[in-house]
């Protein structure tokens, strides 16, 4: 079978050209009056109207043009007679590649709930909502690579299987080729002998590529990783996944201020790229969000329409303040004094929750916020100790509707300070000698941050559940598809 050369529907609809022959291919969304096919091929949100002559077309073929069927249509692109589209294709011939039984196809031309679509995630790409979400997911990923590439950064592939716990989090997926019944027996006896395992030691799926990125940065100067990371947290929330993607730049000869500048520039660049190149998809998702929120009380609705919220983050200078200053603002805030916060703020040392972060952004400053100078007790071992010996050179970027978008820091480059901190936090020094070598041989000030990719996709698409911005979500009890 020789395939005819197809023209993408986005190309047909995006051009003023008329009266030419074209072949389009895609999936039938609807077929009205045995005459009008709404055809979509995923290249754009819009469908192309394909007009067939029901008088001359074979009746058996007409019956096969059903919602969900994959077809090819060849004919003339002409000015449309109907409303809602500028051009349409008048078909001379139609070929059905793949039939779709309309009685069994789960995606009928009607509104489906996001919960239902999660159950058929293998088909949800074919809906307008998920077509828009995954085109934008691509745009966000591409623009991140472009941002770093154009600034001379090198993309590093950090390992997915690792022997170290970068965050000291402990909630990791173990990787083994050992027989689990044998492991159980050994665990009851003298303990498991991991020398017999595939790597000769205990290994896990990575929680972060940061430590390996640091090694590369201390030679290549400017690097970033962008890959999958894993957390074995038993969190069934709309903000947590067991498998998600992270962007982690690391920069040599940089301090906390350089780090804040880089993160702010990157976020603004990516959001602007999506607004400039995928406006149609964002506007569709804005309308979807507004329709969804009509059911909610006014207080729970988004503070501003999606496009306006994105524009707001691009044009505003991010507000920079210390954790200590933020605590004072929160402590004296109306919600705190009136007991409205679920987690009341009493003073220095409090671990900020999403409600506090959103108050600072949405109510107090009314712009994105960067917090610095967190207490060392609530931050990771690799963050640089400030001169006060109480706080570290950490920074978190807080966004409207989402809370923390970015977490980063200037890294602790001084060997004595780093080993002391690791001992305090029970990080095994013997297993981390490779990491400490970067502080022994040619250490220098350096900084970096981590951005949870799906958080950013949620923000730009306006989707409220993280399971709806990754093609096949992994969470407790679910590893479908």
Can you walk through the features of this model?
- The structure is a single chain.
- With 481 residues, this protein is α+β, with helices and mostly antiparallel strands.
- The protein contains 15 helices and 16 strands.
- The strands form 3 sheets. It has an 8-stranded mixed sheet with strand order 6-10-11-16-15-14-13-12, with helices on both faces.
- Strand 1 and strand 2 form a beta hairpin.
- The radius of gyration is 27 Å and the shape is globular.
- The model has no long low-confidence stretch (mean pLDDT 93).
Inertia-based shape: globular
Uncertain regions spanning at least 5 consecutive residues: none
Helical percent range? 25-40%
Count of alpha/pi helices: 15
Give the radius of gyration.
27 Å
Task: Give the neighbour order of strands across the main sheet.
Answer: 6-10-11-16-15-14-13-12
Task: Offer a few descriptive terms.
globular; five-stranded mixed β-barrel; single chain; 16 strands; eight-stranded mixed sheet; alpha+beta; 481 residues
TL;DR?
With 481 residues, this protein is of the alpha+beta class.
Please write out the topology.
Elements: H1 9-13, E1 20-32, E2 36-40, E3 48-51, H2 59-64, E4 70-79, E5 87-98, H3 114-119, H4 128-150, E6 154-155, E7 161-162, E8 174-175, H5 180-188, E9 203-205, H6 210-220, E10 222-230, E11 243-252, H7 256-277, H8 279-293, H9 306-315, E12 319-322, H10 323-331, H11 334-337, H12 354-365, E13 369-375, E14 391-399, E15 403-410, H13 415-424, H14 433-440, E16 446-452, H15 453-461
Parallel strand pairs: 3-5, 6-10, 12-13
Antiparallel strand pairs: 1-2, 1-4, 2-3, 4-5, 7-9, 8-9, 10-11, 11-16, 13-14, 14-15, 15-16
Helix pairs in contact: 4-7, 4-8, 4-15, 7-9
């Amino acid at each position: 079978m020789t395939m005819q050369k197809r023209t993408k529907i986005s190309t047909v609809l995006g051009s003023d050209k008329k009266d030419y022959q074209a072949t389009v291919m895609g999936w039938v969304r609807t077929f009205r009056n045995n005459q009008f096919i709404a055809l979509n091929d995923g290249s754009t949100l819009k469908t192309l109207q394909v007009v067939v002559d029901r008088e001359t077309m074979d009746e058996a073929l007409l019956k096969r043009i059903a919602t969900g069927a994959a077809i090819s249509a060849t004919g003339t692109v002409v000015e449309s007679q109907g409303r809602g589209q500028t051009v349409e294709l008048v078909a001379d011939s139609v070929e059905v590649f793949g039939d779709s039984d309309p009685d069994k196809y789960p995606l009928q031309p009607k509104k489906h709930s996001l919960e239902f679509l999660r159950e058929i995630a293998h088909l949800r790409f074919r809906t307008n909502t998920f077509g828009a979400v995954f085109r934008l997911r691509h745009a966000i990923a591409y623009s991140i690579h472009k941002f770093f590439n154009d600034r001379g950064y090198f993309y590093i592939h950090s390992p997915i299987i690792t022997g170290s716990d970068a965050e000291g989090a402990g909630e990791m997926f173990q990787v083994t080729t050992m027989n689990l019944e044998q492991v159980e027996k050994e665990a009851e006896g003298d303990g498991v002998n991991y020398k017999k395992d595939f790597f000769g030691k205990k290994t896990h799926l990575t929680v972060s590529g940061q430590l390996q990125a640091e090694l590369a940065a201390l030679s290549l100067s400017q690097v970033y990783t962008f890959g999958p990371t894993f957390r074995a947290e038993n969190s069934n929330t709309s903000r947590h996944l067991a498998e998600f993607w992270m962007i982690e730049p690391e920069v040599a000869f940089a301090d906390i201020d350089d780090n804040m500048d880089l993160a702010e520039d990157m976020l603004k660049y990516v959001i602007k790229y999506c607004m400039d190149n995928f406006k149609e998809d964002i506007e569709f998702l804005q309308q979807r969000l507004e329709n969804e929120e009509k059911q909610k009380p006014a207080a729970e609705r988004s503070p501003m329409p999606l496009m306006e919220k994105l524009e707001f983050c691009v044009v505003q200078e991010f507000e920079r303040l210390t954790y200590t200053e933020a605590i004072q603002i929160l402590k004296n805030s109306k919600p705190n004094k009136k007991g409205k916060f679920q987690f009341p703020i009493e003073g220095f040392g409090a671990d900020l929750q999403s409600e506090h972060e959103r108050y600072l952004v949405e109510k107090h400053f009314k712009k994105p916020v960067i917090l610095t100078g967190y207490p060392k007790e609530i931050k990771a071992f690799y963050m640089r100790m400030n001169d006060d010996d109480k706080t570290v050179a950490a920074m978190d970027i807080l966004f409207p509707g989402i809370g923390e978008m970015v977490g980063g820091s200037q890294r602790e480059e001084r060997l004595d300070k780093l080993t002391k901190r690791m001992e305090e936090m029970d990080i095994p020094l013997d297993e981390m000698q490779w990491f400490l070598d970067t502080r022994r041989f040619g250490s220098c000030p350096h900084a970096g941050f981590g951005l949870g990719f799906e958080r950013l996709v949620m923000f730009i698409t306006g989707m409220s559940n993280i399971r709806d911005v990754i093609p096949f979500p992994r969470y407790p009890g679910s590893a479908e598809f």
